[in-house]
Design a protein that fits this description.
single chain, Rossmann fold, globular, 12 strands, 3-stranded mixed sheet, 7-stranded parallel sheet, alpha/beta, about 45% helix
Length: about 350
C-alpha cells in the first residue's frame, strides 16, 4: 500500500510526511513543485529512505499525475499543495487561482479517472483527502459562535476565495461523480519548518536578528492556533475513520489575538535566548493593517472529537515552547530559507507600511 501526498515539501505537508513515516512503514509518493515555500531540507531526515519517493512536479500536470497514479497505485491522495499566504494573494492573486483552483481541478480529474479504473476492495478503500482552511468561512464577530462544518462560506481574501472554490470542487466531485472524498478545514498552524513569512516564525526570526516585529493594526485579530503535529494526527485519524463525503473542522481550542501571540514569543525568547539589548518586546512595531483583514476566526472542533475521538495533544503553552526551541536549534535551516527572494518579499509587503 502507498499514499500520494501533494505539497509534501511545504510546511504542513512535510510535517505530515515525517509524521506518517514515523508512525508507519507505508510508503509515501511526495509530489511538490518546490516553489518558494517548498523546501527539500524539511525532508533531509528521509534522505536514502526507500519509503519516501520524492517527485518534483506540478499538480497542474495531468500527464504526470496519471503516470504517478498508474505506477504507484496509491490507496489515498492527500492534497496539501496550495498557495497559502493571504498577503501574497493580495499582491498576486493569479498564482492562487492557478494552483488552488485549477490545480485542484486537475488533481480531482486524474484521481477520478484512476478511481474509476479500480475494482473491488481497492475501489472501495480509495480516498481523496482535501486539506483546507477555516478562512473559507469568513470573519466572526467577537461574541459569535465558532465555525462549525455547516457555517456559510464567506471568503474575504483572494487566498480564502481560492480555497473555498477548491472545497466546492471537491464536494461537487463527490456528489456528481461519487469520488470518495474527505475534507478537513484547519485553523492557524504553527510549529517546525514554518516558512518565516507567517506571524510566529517571522516574529522569532526578526527578534533574533534585532529587527522590528511588525503587528498589523491594533493586533487584536483573533485566531485559533493549532500545533502542526496535532494537525498531522487529526489528518491520519480522518483518513482512517472519517465518513466519506464529510467535512471535519480541526482546531487547537486556542483562541488568541495576534498581539498576545507576539508577546508570548518575546517572553519565551527572553527566557531561552536573552538579548543584551533588553526585552524583545521593545522591537514590537504596529504597522498599517492589511486590506480586508478578518478580525476573528474560531474553530468548533467538537464533530471530529464526537465522531472520531480526536483532540489536540498540545496546549498553546506547550506547542509554542516546542516551536521556539526548534527555531533556536535550527539556525542553519532559517538562514537557508532567507533567500534574496524572501528578502524582496519582505520589502514588498512591509516597507510601505
Amino acid at each position: 500500500m502507498t499514499i500520494l501526498v501533494t505539497g509534501g515539501a511545504g510546511f504542513i505537508g512535510s510535517n505530515f510526511v515525517l509524521d506518517w513515516l514515523a508512525q508507519s512503514d507505508e510508503p509515501v509518493v511526495n509530489l511538490d513543485a518546490l516553489t518558494y515555500a517548498g523546501n527539500l531540507q524539511n525532508l533531509a531526515a528521509l534522505q536514502g529512505d526507500a519509503r519516501h519517493i520524492f517527485v518534483h512536479g506540478d499538480i497542474g500536470d495531468r500527464a504526470l499525475l496519471e503516470s504517478l497514479l498508474a505506477e504507484h497505485r496509491p490507496r489515498a491522495v492527500l492534497h496539501f499543495a496550495a498557495e497559502s499566504h493571504v498577503d501574497r494573494s493580495i499582491h498576486g492573486p493569479a498564482a492562487f487561482i492557478k494552483t488552488n483552483i485549477e490545480g485542484t481541478f486537475t488533481l480531482l480529474e486524474a484521481a477520478r479517472g484512476y478511481w474509476n479504473a479500480l475494482q473491488g476492495d481497492d475501489r472501495a478503500a480509495f480516498r481523496f483527502h482535501h486539506v483546507s482552511t477555516d478562512e473559507v468561512y469568513g470573519s466572526l464577530a467577537p461574541d459569535a459562535p465558532a465555525f462549525t462544518e455547516t457555517h456559510p462560506y464567506e471568503p474575504n481574501s483572494p487566498y480564502s476565495a481560492s480555497k473555498a472554490a477548491s472545497d466546492h470542487l471537491v464536494r461537487a466531485w463527490h456528489h456528481t461523480y461519487g469520488l470518495p472524498v474527505l475534507t478537513t478545514n484547519c485553523s492557524n498552524n504553527y510549529g517546525p519548518y514554518h516558512f518565516p513569512e507567517k506571524l510566529i516564525p517571522l516574529m522569532i526570526v526578526n527578534a533574533l536578528a534585532g529587527k522590528p516585529l511588525p503587528i498589523y493594526g491594533d493586533g487584536m485579530q483573533v485566531r485559533d492556533w493549532l500545533y502542526v503535529g496535532d494537525h498531522c494526527s487529526a489528518i491520519r485519524t480522518v483518513l482512517a475513520r472519517g465518513r466519506v463525503g464529510e467535512v471535519y473542522n480541526i482546531g487547537g481550542w486556542n483562541e488568541m489575538p495576534n498581539r498576545d501571540i507576539v508577546h508570548a514569543v518575546c517572553a519565551l525568547l527572553d527566557e531561552l535566548r536573552p538579548s543584551a539589548e533588553g526585552p524583545y518586546a521593545r522591537l514590537i512595531t504596529h504597522v498599517k493593517d492589511r486590506p480586508g483583514h478578518d478580525r476573528r476566526y474560531a474553530i468548533d472542533a467538537r464533530k471530529i472529537e464526537r465522531e472520531l475521538g480526536w483532540r489536540p495533544a498540545e496546549t498553546f503553552a506547550s506547542g509554542i515552547r516546542k516551536t521556539v526551541l526548534w527555531y533556536l536549534d535550527h539556525a542553519e535551516w532559517v538562514a537557508n530559507v532567507q533567500s534574496g527572494g524572501y528578502r524582496d518579499w519582505l520589502a514588498t509587503n512591509y516597507t510601505a507600511r
